[in-house]
Amino acid sequence: MTEVMELAPPAIDAGFVDLVIGLDYGDEGKGKTVHCLVATGNYGVVMRFNGGANAGHQLYWDDMEIALHQVPSGIAYPDTLNIIGNGSFVDPECILDEFSDIAKLGITVSSDNLLISDTSHMVLPHHKLFDKLTEAGNGKQGTTAKGIRYVASEKSERIGVRPEMLTWAPNELREHAISGLERFNQALADSTIDPSKLEEAGLVPIDSETRFASWLEAAHTILPLVKDTFPIIHKHLDDGENILAEGAQSTGLDIDQGIYPLGTSSNASPGGMLNGSGVGIHQVRNVIGAHRMKMSRVGGEDGPLITRVDDVKRAARLRGKPTDRDGDFGRTSGRAREQAYPDNALARRGIRLGVTHLVLTQLDLVPRFGKEVKVAVAYDMCGQRLEEAPNSALKLAACTAIYETFPTWRSDISGIREYDKLPQNARKLVEFMEGNLKRPVATIGVGTDRDQVIIKDPSILAA
Ligand code: IMP
Asked: Hey, how many other C-beta atoms are within 10 angstroms of the C-beta on 408?
């Protein structure tokens, strides 16, 4: 008789991974949610697994404020280890600017609180230059111009540069970066774009050697943080420590599940967390999906945003001013964002990817819609009802939103911390979201500050 091999039972004392992802088009308040969850003391590690300097997470707490792009939001806590996982795109020059901003808060970045995977992919000068050049011409997609599509494309071509090359293949790295800059200079010389437009975008011929030397200096500065993060992540989990994974962008911008080609170039969904860090699927506990009660999109003018608020005055009221804490302008690009009604059909596709709990953000801004707010509950695509958004800009362009309408309220709810104290119409809207999206609402954001949160389901805070 063949012997049946016994499988080792899962280690019951091992740590777990909770994950926060966005369900709209980014900017759902993921950074604030992470910041809030880390305050529970349940997590020893906060980890990013996708995206790069294209992300923008704004944190406010105790009169402090910081804009993070690549560094995980756990950096605000002295005892938390932050990890930039292998699925991320690391821009060494931008990250040094971030370190200076972090230092202003009295926090010193070192390998005690931040590690960068040696197999993440590095953004090189030519990636950013080509992104800018393409944006200035006919290939415009409304990107953040951080070079993401070019670093991702070289990753897929399997010719990308990873931090490990700083140590193991410096000559190949140099050759690749220099030849990229030379290709850019040639592309600039061949470009048919109006020269004044090029100059306006800062697109001028580059001295390859000088440009590479300054990039390399930045890369060497971050080298002490570069490690093989895979065994480090697993050691923490084996030791029973929990990890909070922080998604950048959102399921709507995911390269596979988002509105292709109008999203970004990485996997911002739960699957992206697994590959972008090396965590096993069995180690994931809660997957928290952040969904905005007032949606918007940077670059929304370049693609279908089907719940867009067309009324200019209402959109301006919703957007606020660039100087407002909740002013709706790109954190990375500074561009005014298109304003839109909440879109449950878009969120539902993301929820299907594994979300266990919802975080609703910006409930305090709902009265800005006026007396009523519309929620898209499904799409109509040429007479066919779709419950979930298609992962295609071509199909989305053929869709219209099917709405349900709800009365709003007039009072300011930003000071409320108990669910029962919310106006009845606000509670009805929250409960509608739970029923329509078939997931419990864990927390509700009522302002930009870390503490402006209503905990609806305290189980989310359990270790
Ligand atoms: P890229 O990621 O810079 O290539 O930009 C592709 C698209 O994703 C553009 O519409 C960007 O505005 C959008 N995008 C990328 N990252 C973010 C983000 O963190 N928040 C919101 N939109 C983003």
From this structure: 16
